[in-house]
Specification:
alpha/beta; Rossmann fold; 2 domains; seven-stranded mixed beta sheet; S-AdoMet-dep_MeTrfase_Alr7345; methyltransferase activity; UbiE/COQ5 methyltransferase; SAM-dependent_MTases_sf; methyltransferase
């Protein structure tokens, strides 16, 4: 095909046409939620967060589709659970998981979000690290958004370690199932040094750690990068709140 193109057009133009052709093929091969995912009928707070969280692009990045079963691990107030419930539809299912320690931060938001059984395909799962109560070989994908760093420190009332949790998550995924990890990036080569003090974790550490646990790294995205974040500040300071430099990684169970 390239020989035919080059025979008719100048080399530079031929290269551009070939690139455009490749982009077009990739576009059709990628799930396109833009324009099809209804973002309305949600809280003002959720809609406000859409601007910096870019949920449509993130869900597209994972490749979630109708009929899928998705685990929203450490789901907080359920921001992603509600959106995922719309994507997977009536034949799909979403598990919204949190431990009891999250209730003081998320209970009010969850009460509103789940009131009157408004998300019929979402199951609310309150479970702890020693037994997440996840069925094996069940999920097409798992979302772990801004929670992985919390698995590397223990505190009074908080004990949710990666060593206990991630083997269960791996077993709960189907073969080929995807794991999305989004978190606040930390200084280069800092590992888990800042997980408690700044709520940040080094992206290189995350990749290496999950590969050791049996997850295959697939791809990363720059969707949530912020070059103005120098990684030295607590993620909750006003100027960085919901605007931190966040890495986006996708892994697979093989």
């Amino acid at each position: 095909m390239m020989k035919t193109i080059q025979g008719k057009f100048p080399a530079k133009l031929a290269a551009k046409l070939a690139a455009l052709s490749t982009i077009s093929l990739l576009a059709f091969a990628t799930p396109l939620l833009a324009g099809t995912l209804d973002l309305s009928g949600r809280s003002d707070k959720d809609i406000e967060q859409d601007l910096t969280r870019k949920p449509v692009q993130i869900i597209d990045f994972v490749g979630v589709k109708k009929g899928d079963k998705v685990l929203d691990l450490l789901a907080g107030g359920g921001y992603y659970s509600e959106l995922l419930s719309r994507v997977v539809g009536d034949k799909g299912a979403v598990t919204l998981q949190i431990p009891k320690a999250y209730l003081k931060y998320a209970e009010k938001a969850l009460d509103v979000r789940l009131a009157n059984d408004r998300l019929k395909n979402v199951t609310y799962l309150l479970s702890e690290a020693d037994n997440l109560k996840l069925s094996e070989n069940t999920y097409d994908s798992a979302f772990l958004v801004l929670g992985f760093h919390d698995m590397f420190f223990q505190d009074k009332g908080w004990d949710f370690t990666a060593d206990e949790v991630m083997p269960q998550v791996l077993k709960s995924l189907k073969k080929g199932g995807k794991l999305l990890v989004i978190d606040h990036d930390a200084a280069e080569n800092s590992g888990i040094r800042d997980v408690k003090t700044l709520h940040r974790i080094d992206s290189a550490f995350v990749k290496a750690d999950l590969e050791k646990r049996g997850f295959k790294f697939i791809k990363t995205s720059k969707l949530l990068e912020n070059d103005n974040d120098d990684h030295s500040k607590l993620v909750f300071v006003p100027e960085l709140r919901r605007k931190t430099d966040r890495f986006v990684m996708l892994f697979e169970k093989i």
